Amino acid sequence: MPVDGALPTASALDARHDRPSLVAFVSDAKSEEALQDGLGEVQAQAVDLRRGGIRAAIAAMQKQATPKVLIVDVSGEEQPLSALAELSNVVEPDVCVLVIGDIENVDFYREVTRTLGATEYLAKPLTREKVSRHFGASVTGHMPAADVALGGRAISVTGVRGGVGATTIAVNLGWHFGVKMRRHTVLLDPDLHLGATAFMLGIQPGQGLRMALETPERIDSLLAERAAQPVADRLHVLAGEEKVTVPVTHADGAAGALMSSLRQRYNFIIADTPFAPVPLYRNLLELVDQRVLVMDPTLASVRDTVRLLSLPRGRTQDQRAIVVLNRIGITGGLTRRQVEDALKMKVDVAIQDMPRQLGNAATLGEPAINTSGGLRSAIVELARQVASQRLLDAASDALRDAEGAQKKRWPWFRRRG
């Protein structure tokens, strides 16, 4: 048993007792028999076989821990690629997904394995030998290492200056994804001295984040299980609360190692990232997939928003930062039109000033999205813009046409090595 407060090593990968090894959802008896016989040849333990297709899998994964290996049957599904994309929203990104179905088509195989990132696809009818040969290595964990480890989507939320409400936006966005949408979500607060995400949700932060930032070589895929504090079933907070007199050292490579670890565990990483001359913060802003800038309707915010919009984009950032204009209607503030004229662009999301609702929520340690319809609508719109979700069935032809393009596309499931 690891010492309290210590991060687990990579050898502890299988230590999550809540996570099943293998669950299969199959829609017919013959395929069920082939899976039972074929997988029985490569592993000793019984296979958890459940009757039903991908819709049954989606319903089950909304309520239970994601298995390490998940087999789903898309037979008879009118839009199987869309259903698989929907499944990816309710499972942990590092799951190894094996798909079976009734479509015997090389283009479909490519969409499932290359675009969606499923490990393998087999067309029916299944045989014992086919299952053992094509699924066996994945089930036993003996797949060759993947070239790239991709997973959850990371979003930074940054206030262009202090007091504009960035932490409130980050907390409520995380709540929307993790609690309302039931996506595996972590709120990352890298400010170990003055961060407020844990405080706003009424939880006590732990020591794991500081240890991870100081010794990134000890970070592994179980970091979240030891260092992050659960707020709800699918919402965790990774934060710290160090004394302001205690210096914290951010080791080189800490941001990259941390993000890589969190991407394997969560569908969404919401990083409440200040803009300050701290290498860790700058690295996080470069590593996320989408930046969000939060401003208020003042000339100082306009100036700082323009400056932060000029920051070079990170490698995985396909579009400019999303601009949230918060606290519209504050005494002496600019109007939305004045702000947009000064920025020479439209703001992406606008939120009215609501000091009473937000103050009460912070005092109670609850997200204001639960009681404020105006904030809820704004957060839903922000979530739509940052999630970058696509329905593949409607766009499969366009995706195939773009297969040779240089623009990087992120699989829904992470190819497990």
Task: Give a structural overview.
The protein has helices at residues 29-40, 54-61, 80-88, 106-115, 128-140, 166-180, 197-200, 208-214, 223-227, 254-265, 279-287, 299-309, 336-343, 355-364, 373-387, 392-401, and strands at 22-26, 48-51, 69-73, 96-101, 120-123, 153-159, 185-188, 229-232, 235-238, 268-272, 290-295, 322-328, 349-352. It is an alpha/beta fold and 417 residues long. The chain has 2 domains: 19-140, 3-Layer(aba) Sandwich (Rossmann fold); 153-371, 3-Layer(aba) Sandwich (Rossmann fold), CATH 3.40.50. The strands form 2 sheets. Strands 8-9-7-10-6-11-12-13 form an 8-stranded mixed β-sheet, with helices on both faces. Helix 2 packs parallel to helix 3, helix 6 crosses helix 15 (373-387) and helix 10 (254-265) crosses helix 11. The model is unreliable at 1-15, 144-149 and 389-409 (pLDDT under 50).
Descriptive tags:
Rossmann fold, disordered N terminus, alpha/beta, 13 strands, elongated, eight-stranded mixed β-sheet, 417 residues, 38% helix, five-stranded parallel β-sheet, 2 domains
Please indicate the percent range of residues in DSSP E strands (runs of 2 or more).
15-25%
Structural Rg = 23 Å
CATH fold field value of the largest domain = Rossmann fold
- What is the H/E order? EHEHEHEHEHEHEHHHEEHEHEHEHEHHH
Overall outline: elongated
CATH homologous group name of the largest domain: P-loop containing nucleotide triphosphate hydrolases
Instruction: Give the averaged pLDDT, no decimals.
Output: 85
Biggest sheet statistics: 8 strands, mixed
Cα-to-Cα separation, first versus last residue:
26 Å
Q: Helicity, in percent?
A: 25-40%
Structure annotation, total helices: 16
What are the segments in which pLDDT stays under 50 over at least 5 consecutive residues? Answer: 1-15, 144-149, 389-409
The protein's oligomeric status is single chain
CATH class of the largest domain: Alpha Beta
Number of strands: 13
CATH architecture of the largest domain, by name, is 3-Layer(aba) Sandwich
